[in-house]
Specification:
Blueprint: E1 20-26, E2 29-34, E3 38-43, E4 58-64, E5 67-72, H1 84-90, H2 97-100, E6 109-115, E7 118-124, E8 126-132, E9 136-139, E10 149-155, E11 159-164, H3 166-169, E12 177-178, H4 182-189, E13 192-200, E14 203-208, E15 214-220, E16 231-237, E17 240-245, H5 247-250, E18 262-270, E19 274-280, E20 282-290, E21 308-313, E22 319-323, H6 325-328, H7 332-339, E23 342-343, E24 355-357, H8 358-361, E25 385-390, E26 394-398, E27 404-407, E28 420-426, E29 429-435, H9 436-439, E30 452-458, E31 461-467, E32 469-481, E33 495-499, E34 506-509
Parallel strand pairs: 2-11, 5-7, 14-22, 17-19, 29-31
Antiparallel strand pairs: 1-2, 1-8, 3-6, 4-5, 6-7, 7-12, 9-10, 10-11, 13-14, 13-20, 15-18, 16-17, 17-23, 18-19, 21-22, 24-32, 25-26, 25-32, 27-30, 28-29, 30-31, 32-33, 33-34
């Protein structure tokens, strides 16, 4: 005889009696599995996918959230009658289909077991109950006991049951699978790059956030002699006059040739203080794209294929052409347009609205984002770029504070007292979404077709802030209200951000979005 073996599962509590086990029925006998090794329980299908070189105890595989899980049945090894679903599979050809149908309850369930990064499925007839070992009496095991059994117990309510060895379950050839696939491990180590996704006509494009100077809200196009062909007109942005180009025509796609009187766009900076704007019909979102999730495409797709890194196809099957900004800055045709851009003569600036630049007051370079008090760290953008949104009024947030931006996928109901609107699924995890206007104390948000969700990371979780509209991305710098001594305020609530230059400059309230979360 041997005592309850050394193969007993490790007990994390101080007392083994604290171990919680799940009791399952296999062929009319009861067995237990430590709950710490049970990932989930799912219904068994009526048929399993065959596996190559299949072990006698393997019944096949099932797909669980896109991952193949090998499933084993212990009935043969334990000398028990095969489960109903396996009997039906064996007799399928001899039984008329009208008689062979079985309900899901006859198929049993699959207990997904995991340990040390490995996972396998165990086909059982039913899950009976949860027990603590402290409510049972341990029994000795015979010396010739199958290594699959690592303990025996008696319970007042359910009688005798045997403890299954998790390590032995994971020792069956081809039965265990990596819980996290090599692809998932590789993706976790791959750097993701933030891109703005926008649409022109029927085509979707992606451009890296780091490569754009700013976005351009819809503005009037001024006539210019170069207008015609692939140039739509002239705009003024951040103190610079520049051409607004027809994006489709300049990137080698068919264009309608329409000449609108106003347009929105994205600005790319060029060497020697030059810039170009590319027209945009709609900015859709900000997404993080893996470096190796961009694929090449045949040159015949566009006559300017050298201006692209490739194409990214998202989970919904949408094709997004990824613009190579470095190639655009070296393209001879685009350089000719960029050469026509120029800065307008600056005009004397006066202090606006009783505010003063923190950097100017402290005698620092305005581009030095290390300046200023630590209390303003959550308001300061390391790249001098700010996203302006509307949530019962316009305000700006540092672009680095936002992980991604998405369009509203569902219609919101009324929020609760805390501003909570809905829970969404994001990257296989739950993400609560809050009304940004309500969290700012500015009333209730009104969400229409321009609404979006700012996705933020905090304490290892994702949160969403729903805004009424996403306005623009601009370069800017913090400004604080002047005190009696002429110095800028260091209070976060008394800060603004100055976006743009010269006459086009505007002051917008700023907020640290993480401070708006519960």
């Amino acid at each position: 005889m041997q005592n309850v073996g050394d193969d007993q599962p490790k007990i994390t509590g101080e007392d083994p009696a604290d171990l919680l086990v799940g009791v399952v029925d296999i062929g009319g006998m009861l067995f237990a599995i430590p709950i710490e090794h049970v990932r989930e329980v799912i219904p068994a299908p009526s048929a399993f996918q065959r596996l190559p070189s299949q072990h006698p105890d393997l019944v096949g595989g099932v797909l669980l959230r896109g991952k193949a899980i090998p499933v084993q049945a212990l009935h043969r090894r334990l000398g028990l009658e095969a489960p109903t679903c396996l009997q039906a599979a064996t007799e399928r050809e001899a039984v008329d289909t009208t008689e062979a149908g079985t309900g899901s309850t006859d198929n049993g369930v699959i207990v997904v077991v995991r340990a040390n990064g490995r996972v396998t499925g165990l086909l059982v007839d039913a899950v009976r109950c949860l027990l603590q070992l402290g409510d049972t009496w341990a029994q000795n095991l015979p010396a010739d006991q199958d290594s699959l059994i690592c303990g025996g117990y008696i319970c007042d309510t359910h009688g005798h049951f045997s403890m299954l060895s998790v390590s032995e379950l994971l020792n069956v050839p081809l039965a265990p699978s990596d819980e996290v696939s090599e692809t998932a491990r590789r993706r976790a180590s791959v750097r993701r790059i933030a891109h703005i996704r926008f649409r022109v006509g029927t085509l979707n494009f992606l451009i890296a956030m780091k490569d754009i100077a700013s976005t351009v809200p819809t503005c009037v196009l001024k006539p210019w002699p170069v207008s015609g062909g692939s140039c739509m007109g002239l705009i003024t942005r951040h103190g610079m006059e520049m051409p607004m180009l027809d994006t489709l025509a300049n990137l080698g796609f068919a264009s309608s040739g329409a000449r609108p009187t106003e347009a929105a766009g994205i600005i790319i900076e060029y060497p020697d203080d030059k810039a170009l704007a590319f027209n945009v019909d709609q900015v859709l979102s900000v997404v993080n794209i893996e470096e190796d999730a961009i694929y090449g495409f045949p040159p015949s797709v566009t006559t300017r294929w050298s201006l692209f890194d490739g194409v990214h196809i998202d989970a919904a099957g949408n094709q997004c052409f990824v613009i190579n900004v470095a190639a655009c800055r070296e393209d001879a045709d685009l350089l000719k347009f960029a050469a026509a851009s120029h800065r307008k003569k600056p005009e004397p600036q006066s202090r606006l609205g009783g505010v003063v630049s923190i950097a100017a007051v402290e005698g620092a370079d305005p581009k030095d984002q290390g300046c200023g008090p630590a209390s303003l760290a959550g308001l300061r953008s390391q790249s001098n770029r700010y996203l302006t949104v509307c949530a019962a009024g316009d305000f700006a947030v540092p672009i680095e504070a936002v992980s991604e931006i998405m369009r509203v996928p569902v219609e919101f109901g009324p929020s609760d007292f805390d501003g909570h609107l809905v829970n969404l699924s994001y990257r296989d995890r739950l993400m609560p979404v809050y009304d940004c206007a309500q969290r700012r104390g500015s009333g209730i948000g009104q969400f229409g077709s321009e609404a979006g969700i700012l996705i933020l990371s905090k304490d290892g979780h994702h949160f969403g802030l729903a805004v009424e509209a996403m306005k623009s991305i601009d370069t800017g710098r913090l400004k604080g209200y002047r005190g009696a001594d002429g110095r800028a305020s260091e209070q976060p609530s008394e800060q603004l951000v100055e976006l743009g230059l010269g006459k086009a400059a505007r002051l917008v309230p700023i907020a640290d979005p993480s401070e708006l979360l519960p």
